[in-house]
């Protein structure tokens, strides 16, 4: 696992918000692309269309998508060679039965991880770390 480090220039931006999400969440999915921010969002929504059905963009730059009985909190930022996305699932309420996880895997996790077959880097992480060393390096230079 590789620590996700926040550069000083990213403080107070959506990059810092994503950093905090990785620190707080036990499970995140990462995507690193060599394409622009809007194209990266489009690629993610193309493979996981439920993310766009019921969503809101929060003031801090994160997107909250409601998918059935759970939510996905996610965001996309730029880095010098493309874009970085972080997605994390959250149950709709405390004590929720665990059957939402199979829906998450089928509707979001597996399709997003399949982006690796299109030339994008995908990985995971949580608790402040990610599995992909290239994602961790690129995150140090992330910006909006």
What's the structural blueprint in terms of helices and strands?
Layout: E1 2-3, H1 14-24, E2 28-33, H2 37-47, H3 50-53, E3 55-57, E4 63-67, E5 70-79, E6 82-91, H4 100-113, E7 121-126, E8 129-130, H5 133-139
Question: What would you say this structure looks like, in words?
Answer:
33% of the residues lie in helices and 31% in strands. It has helices at residues 14-24, 37-47, 50-53, 100-113, 133-139; strands at residues 2-3, 28-33, 55-57, 63-67, 70-79, 82-91, 121-126, 129-130. The longest helix is centred in the last third of the chain and has 14 residues, at 100-113. The chain is globular, with a radius of gyration of 14 Å. The mean pLDDT is 93.
Describe the structure concisely for a colleague.
With 144 residues, the protein is α+β, with helices and mostly antiparallel strands.
Question: Over the alpha carbons, how many angstroms does the gyration radius reach?
Answer: 14 Å
Shape: globular
- Measure the end-to-end span: 25 Å
Report mean pLDDT, rounded to a whole number. Answer: 93
Low-confidence stretches: none
Number of helices: 5
Could you give the order of the helices and strands? EHEHHEEEEHEEH
**What is the count of β-strands?**
8
Helix content: 25-40%
Strand percentage lies at 25-35%
Structural class: alpha+beta
Largest sheet, if any? Answer: 8 strands, antiparallel
Strand sequence of the main sheet, in spatial order? 1-8-7-2-6-5-4-3
